[in-house]
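P.,

For your records, the input lines for the assembly:
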Amino acid sequence: MALNKLLRPGLIQLRVLDLDKTLNFYKNILGLDEVCRTSDGRVCLKTYDEFDHHSVTLRLADTAGFDYAAFKVDSPETLEEMKEKTIKFGYAVDEVPANSNQPGFGKRYGFTICTGHRFEIYCDVELAEKGPQIKNPDIWTTPPRGMRAIRLDHFLLYGPNIEEAERFCKEVFGMYSPEVCNLPDGKRLATWLTSSNKPHDFAFVEYDKPGKIHHIGFYLENWTDVGNAADWMAIHRLKRDIGPTRHAITRGQTIYFWEPSGNRIEVYSGGYTAYPDNPLRIWDSDMLWRGLFYYEGEMLPSFLEIVT
Amino acid sequence: MALNKLLRPGLIQLRVLDLDKTLNFYKNILGLDEVCRTSDGRVCLKTYDEFDHHSVTLRLADTAGFDYAAFKVDSPETLEEMKEKTIKFGYAVDEVPANSNQPGFGKRYGFTICTGHRFEIYCDVELAEKGPQIKNPDIWTTPPRGMRAIRLDHFLLYGPNIEEAERFCKEVFGMYSPEVCNLPDGKRLATWLTSSNKPHDFAFVEYDKPGKIHHIGFYLENWTDVGNAADWMAIHRLKRDIGPTRHAITRGQTIYFWEPSGNRIEVYSGGYTAYPDNPLRIWDSDMLWRGLFYYEGEMLPSFLEIVT
Amino acid sequence: MALNKLLRPGLIQLRVLDLDKTLNFYKNILGLDEVCRTSDGRVCLKTYDEFDHHSVTLRLADTAGFDYAAFKVDSPETLEEMKEKTIKFGYAVDEVPANSNQPGFGKRYGFTICTGHRFEIYCDVELAEKGPQIKNPDIWTTPPRGMRAIRLDHFLLYGPNIEEAERFCKEVFGMYSPEVCNLPDGKRLATWLTSSNKPHDFAFVEYDKPGKIHHIGFYLENWTDVGNAADWMAIHRLKRDIGPTRHAITRGQTIYFWEPSGNRIEVYSGGYTAYPDNPLRIWDSDMLWRGLFYYEGEMLPSFLEIVT
Amino acid sequence: MALNKLLRPGLIQLRVLDLDKTLNFYKNILGLDEVCRTSDGRVCLKTYDEFDHHSVTLRLADTAGFDYAAFKVDSPETLEEMKEKTIKFGYAVDEVPANSNQPGFGKRYGFTICTGHRFEIYCDVELAEKGPQIKNPDIWTTPPRGMRAIRLDHFLLYGPNIEEAERFCKEVFGMYSPEVCNLPDGKRLATWLTSSNKPHDFAFVEYDKPGKIHHIGFYLENWTDVGNAADWMAIHRLKRDIGPTRHAITRGQTIYFWEPSGNRIEVYSGGYTAYPDNPLRIWDSDMLWRGLFYYEGEMLPSFLEIVT
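Structure tokens returned:
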């Protein structure tokens, strides 16, 4: 008996256009710490409150966007078991040897799901040198900076065939959906998936182009810190998409804006405590905008059209 | 594969001395809704945001205190499996038939653990008539009242032999400890246990008298609501124990006070997101007061001495 | 020696279209208390935290909008002195006898300024029966409701010739401007005026039609209450204009929406503490949108076009 | 016509014991900026949000405590007028020439009032180089640090004959008392005095020893920042007196603690908006503890006994 065997999204690798300018955002505005750089020039970062080696890797490229997300599982046995289940589900699996391209990380298995996104799973990762204290711990040691991001929280992926993706996440990853949005014909338009009590670890929106990422969400302590993040966004003239506002879906309090490379960032707080036995919350597609933006209750075209 | 099979503490039955005065507290100050009364005069209550039938039952008695706590599990199979494991662990199990004394609840199994507390497990409970919406849901429908309690969150039990109790919760309930406090000789003084990402579902403190409860914790949205709760406490002249303050343990923000019957209530917010793979946080017993009351950093005699 | 002789805007009379529906908003959503009704059917209201008899009067009419605002001054001597100064400034003054149409209010002098708005001044008003306590006071006695408005805070008027209006407010009312917005030719586009340490008691925007009101602002305790107000706005499907956001001008945190009769309401919190010796903050008209909506930084057409 | 001619407490000079350690507190924990040092080794500081040259001067000495507080008035005419009134009131006045010992400050007049405290008045002071922006201003430019103090807000003085001191402040400074606390025989035990809409600019408590200071209060943005300040206090092991709590008097939200030299610091937020026409709030001395510490409602001996 244990918690879900898939623990959480532990790592995301993103493509960025201007490393210095973008790093300045992640470090001095969002508030992440630089952990290390790889021999091929990628930069590894983490929040002040994450225990593991790093959670965000930035790679210089010609287009912004999503390389892959990696999920931590609870044991070597689960790692092998999920690999087998993934193959049985029908996705080809490759192996990334330990420490080969993400410092501190053990062996990872990778595969591309139907939406065109690469997912990876791993069970071993070194603890960060500068993680939270564990012996008579203070709540922090170095003061949180800027927007004071607490953790990599979730991401939203756009791609085709999200019904299969949802089924994969339930059958292989052991996740559940606290909320879904259906089209009038009953087909999924969007689904939120979690492996925990968080209202989502990631979400999918049905979209005709594969492999797109809509946003990466970082967790803040509360609505006052959402306001603080909005101040930082304004002072640094970051391009805002929407917010401060609240989602009815997840109930989170939020702002969306773009970092200097054009990846959309969400800073997010609150949200209900989800349980798998709670009734599924169902949104009709004509109510989705109210579900997404509870205060505005209206369509935001950029939210549909701009992905990386 | 699933989340932990033991979902959460779903019900607590408390003894109270003055039903009217105490009910006024739970309903109009703490903000719970009365769901129903039993034929023997007990009162069933829930928060505005809980889905299940009720979560708190008050029983008129000559002494205040803890009758039992009941935990929801994920399936009938788990219910039988945990019953068997409990018997194997060495505790005698009795059966409470469906709807026999808690309206809306299915069959429960009950047993007394080494600390002298009765625990129960169940898998079936009816949904409340006035739970959160599930179709294109608003975030609430009837405005939260008073202290605006969101859910029954956790409780702290005092009793003997908590090392065995911790072992029971891990082996039979599948829980884990994010934090513990040890005496200089390495013996447990206190342990926090969770079945989820909450930093605790309940906790134990080693104590020579069995079956005691230290407090029942209700969740609030944020530190601002902790301040609001303190205003209500002051205006209604409720006897305060400590707070508003922060725990270093769990990092929650909190106030402790006594309801009119003398049961200690905590209103609690925040707290980190716990994961079973995070390092165990260990407190030395001579640092426990700082762990409990991060701002005061000092012993509070009432906190040791007053239990019900 | 005394504080400014003009104390504050103490009363506003508004026209509304549907008295029942609109009253429901002011009482149960914004959180005002009904104080009394006049013989001609107007309704007098106040916030829970105001001492004086009432601060808002609603009058049923065919169009929504502004009837007049009345300002409390510190003494009968000031009342007569300001009357004389107003006449000297060039505005005709009429007298409204005590208790003639605003219950509890003493004699008022009224006049129409160049922007087409009627202003009144008075020095006597009865204390409300249900004002804040004054003997060993609790912070409140009846719990604040809904959006929990603390006081009538300010209003924004649209009309012609605001330079003269600003001069009137300085010379006759003794007010000062903490911030102004100028067109490229140096002409005033907008001016904020205060008689106190609040960043504004009211403001003017240059506009070709006289006598228009843009919004009435009510004060909330903090940004968390601005979020709470946004929840109420969403749940009750009030039409939103903008927010939650922050003004750079005044630094207030805010939402704008319309009450059921179409008067725009602002719920506002924070803002700096103004002093008359602080440097004047000057906005260029091409930066005004950033000044108004610090997070959006963009023009909001409705904000220019919709007035009542 | 103008606001009160005495604008605010603009400067306080304190004695400290260990300049480096104490400066570290004021700069890196409380969040003040060092403006300059004087030729005799004193250090001048200000908050990020104050316009004037500096507001706090620290002087190395053998005992901690209060040297003097200086108040800004609105004009050279007021300066001379208040000097004359002070002499008439019966206090000897001396003159401190411009720039003689407080860089950036014009001529000051000083005098010792009956409580044994030296007060000064001035009308000229240079603007700080790093004050808030005034042309299309951002809300801040350098991020607020640590406890994020917004301004020198108020102080509490202990000394004899506070009835005379209150009379002086009303007659000469033009201040008013929003709240007082009286002994059963009707004698003042404490009085809060303001020259503005703040609930207090300073306060007096009757005490047999002259010239004592109880605490210096700095303003924070809100209750969430009071919580943040408490985290900083705990992490840096500053000795706490009381809080986070709320005053019923002024309604402020607060913590008291000692800086490294032993001067008591209050970080304070909220508080009602005071007006001179509001009814005087009167506290009976046997209710004073509830007035001071609304949540605790009990005597705190250190609060009476420890002054510097």
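Two observations worth noting. DSSP finds six helices and 17 strands in chain C. Chain C has a mean pLDDT of 96.

Regards
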